[in-house]
Hints:
It contains four helices and three strands.
Amino acid sequence: MQRIALRTKLEPGREAEYEQVHAVIPAELDAALREAGVRSWRIWRDGLDLFHVVEVEDYQAMRRALRDHPANVAWQARMSELLAVADDYSGGDTGLRQVWELP
C-alpha cells in the first residue's frame, strides 16, 4: 500500500463551491476510485491550498486506470472549473516527496 501526498490550489473565490461539490462525490466516481485500488483519499484546505493524502495499492496504476474512465473524466472536467491547474492524468506524477515521518 502506498501513501501519496498531493497539493493542489483552488481558483480564488471557489472555496465554498469546491467543498459543496465534495460533500458527496458521484457513486460512479467512488466505485472507479475503489476499483483502481484507492483505499482512502483525504483532503485538507488552507485558504486556496488543498492537501491530499491518498492510500492506494499502486498510485501510477490508479492514474492509468482513471485517465480515461468516464466517471473520472467528468469529475476532472468539473474540477478544472475550480482548480488553478487542472489534472489531465497524463505524465508521471508521483506526489510530494516525503521528508520526515515519526515512526
